[in-house]
């Protein structure tokens, strides 16, 4: 079977899987795809659908948009800056999920304020992909970006009061 031109998707997936310390079988189970199919994707023998990429991204806890770009589903040039910024935020192991979502909301609100569309990279990929790009840019008034205080009142850093 000849290798398909899917960029470096397979290599990237293998690297992300190893970084997450998951075996091929563990990732396949978590993503709900077969072990042989995932192996073929990693070796560049299969080009997965956006839905499969989303499942794999969710299992790896990485940005689905990054996988879409690497698979050639999204236009890399048009969406590169936004996708890379979102990917870096989502991949940061020092932030919890709530902190990542708040940071993404702040980032997206600044993009809107500056006249750039938000979530355009995922608008044509279906409902599941939209989960990766929250539409709600309202950030709770007591959110502190530096430190980790959120509307829930939990924090892992210095306690600060928003003004």
From TrEMBL:
CDD domains: HTH_XRE
Any Pfam family hit: HTH_3
PROSITE patterns: HTH_CROC1
Native source species: Streptomyces griseochromogenes
Domain HTH cro/C1-type span(s) in chain numbering: 13-67
Lineage: Bacteria, Bacillati, Actinomycetota, Actinomycetes, Kitasatosporales
Keywords per UniProt: DNA-binding
Compositionally biased intervals (Acidic residues): 121-139
Keyword DNA-binding: yes
Chain intervals for the UniProt region annotation (Disordered): 121-163
Name used for this protein in its record: Transcriptional regulator
SMART domains (UniProt xref): HTH_XRE (SM00530)
GO molecular function ontology, one term from the record: DNA-binding transcription factor activity
Entries under Gene3D superfamilies matching the protein: lambda repressor-like DNA-binding domains (1.10.260.40)
Keyword DNA-binding (UniProt): yes
Any Gene Ontology CC annotation: cytosol
InterPro entries xref list: Cro/C1-type_HTH, Lambda_DNA-bd_dom_sf, TransReg_Diox_bact_type
Sections of the chain in a coiled coil: none
């Amino acid at each position: 079977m000849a290798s398909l031109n899917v960029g470096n998707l397979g290599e990237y997936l293998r690297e992300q899987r190893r970084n997450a310390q998951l075996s091929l079988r563990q990732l396949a189970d978590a993503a709900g795809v077969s072990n042989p199919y995932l192996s073929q994707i990693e070796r560049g023998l299969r080009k997965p659908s956006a839905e499969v990429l989303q499942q794999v991204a969710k299992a790896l806890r990485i940005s689905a948009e990054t996988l879409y770009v690497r698979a050639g589903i999204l236009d890399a040039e048009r969406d590169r800056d936004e996708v890379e910024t979102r990917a870096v935020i989502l991949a940061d192991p020092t932030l919890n999920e709530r902190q990542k979502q708040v940071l993404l909301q702040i980032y997206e609100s600044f993009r809107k304020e500056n006249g750039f569309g938000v979530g355009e990279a995922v608008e044509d990929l279906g409902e599941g992909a939209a989960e990766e790009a929250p539409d709600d840019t309202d950030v709770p008034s007591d959110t502190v970006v530096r430190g980790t205080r959120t509307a829930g009142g939990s924090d892992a850093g210095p306690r600060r009061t928003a003004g």
